[in-house]
């Protein structure tokens, strides 16, 4: 029997399903990153306010005018809302390889809840000490279309919030498989095991115009789970920072597990500029290998009009023969005309707009200082 990750590998897409758009390369990159990774943040312009984004069962619909694209994400995911698995394969034309080894360490959960003609099975989980990946299967007798949104939440003791991503794909009529990743924000260090409650409150159809209330099924499914953490090694990094265009990136820690590598970093930028900042990364080793990555979301706070975000990346497992890892942040600043609506779980809608870049700020792309990480002490 195929595991749930194999289902993703088998999904095909026709090239002629895509329509070409007129846009320069920077605009294409900005829009793709914005829809995938960035949500408008709502906070006072001044003062000190701790900003924990997470544990809020809300959704945002983000529209980009004149671009012809549509994206969705949790506003609680704050800075980066990466999309994993199939969507990345569709974008890059092939597998990224980031999740190729997850099946080796995935722990079976196999918990099923059913009501109102909907059946949701929580299949497997992978926990590496800070990030959690879950896979699940949805079966429904009601036609909800090809694109679904699972309104979910995760409750973990002593965790103040989370960032992450969700991916759902239709396998056959009425059958869907999905994967959700969570980057857990906590004051504690990595733990040996994680006890959590996964909550599913509704399954909704996601069309071109956004969420369809007519094609939605409310539910109340709770899954109480404990997962053992994988073995991992961490390397604290000091004085690894770079600043360009008033944006400072600091590489803080590298964690290696049997199936992946996690890079922790912080980003500081003026609050008025933060909504227009995008980050790409170039990650390679001394052997010439280039590594794919996914963003895991972030949380942070605004202090004296400076926003500081703490985030992380999931990277492919590094080549065991590599001695040095080279990490180059790529800063992108660009106009993002448009707006959207944030929808809280009580139905409250908050509309927002995205204005032009602040006066005096020039759009563009900059390769920041390359940071070298000696891997010998973590092997």
UniProtKB/TrEMBL annotation:
InterPro entries: DUF4179 (IPR025436), DUF5643 (IPR040680). Keywords: Membrane, Transmembrane, Transmembrane helix. Residues 242-335 form the DUF5643 domain. It holds the Pfam family DUF4179. Residues 49-139 form the DUF4179 domain. The chain crosses the membrane at residues 56-74. This is DUF4179 domain-containing protein. It comes from Aminipila butyrica.
């Amino acid at each position: 029997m195929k595991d749930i990750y194999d289902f993703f590998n088998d999904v095909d897409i026709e090239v002629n399903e895509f329509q070409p758009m007129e846009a320069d390369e920077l605009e294409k990159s900005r829009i793709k990153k914005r829809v995938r990774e960035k949500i408008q943040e709502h906070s006072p312009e001044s003062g000190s306010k701790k900003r924990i984004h997470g544990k809020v069962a809300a959704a945002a619909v983000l529209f980009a005018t004149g671009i012809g694209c549509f994206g969705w994400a949790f506003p609680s995911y704050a800075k980066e809302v990466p999309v994993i698995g199939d969507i990345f394969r569709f974008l890059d034309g092939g597998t990224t390889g980031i999740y190729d080894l997850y099946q080796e360490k995935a722990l079976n959960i196999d918990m099923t809840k059913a009501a109102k003609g909907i059946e949701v099975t929580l299949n497997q989980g992978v926990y590496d000490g800070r990030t959690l990946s879950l896979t699940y299967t949805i079966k429904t007798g009601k036609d909800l279309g090809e694109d679904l949104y699972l309104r979910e939440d995760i409750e973990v003791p002593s965790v103040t919030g989370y960032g992450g991503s969700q991916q759902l794909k239709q396998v056959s009529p009425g059958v869907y498989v999905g994967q959700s990743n969570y980057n857990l924000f906590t004051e504690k260090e990595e733990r040996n095991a994680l006890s959590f409650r996964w909550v599913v409150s509704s399954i909704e159809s996601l069309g071109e115009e956004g969420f369809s209330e007519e094609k939605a099924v409310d539910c109340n499914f709770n899954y109480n789970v404990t997962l053992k953490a994988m073995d991992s090694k961490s390397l604290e990094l000091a004085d690894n920072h770079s600043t360009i265009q008033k944006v400072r990136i600091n590489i803080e820690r590298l964690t290696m597990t049997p199936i992946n590598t996690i890079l922790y970093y912080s980003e500081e930028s003026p609050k008025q500029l933060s909504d227009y900042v995008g980050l790409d990364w170039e990650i390679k080793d001394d052997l010439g290998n280039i590594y794919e990555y996914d963003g895991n979301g972030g949380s942070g706070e605004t202090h004296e009009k400076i926003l500081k975000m703490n985030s992380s990346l999931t990277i492919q497992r590094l080549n065991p023969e590599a001695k040095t890892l080279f990490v180059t942040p790529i800063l992108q600043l660009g106009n993002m005309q448009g707006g959207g609506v944030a929808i809280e779980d009580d139905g409250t809608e908050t509309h927002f707009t995205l204005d032009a870049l602040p006066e005096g700020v020039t759009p563009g792309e900059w390769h920041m200082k390359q940071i070298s990480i000696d891997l010998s002490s973590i092997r």
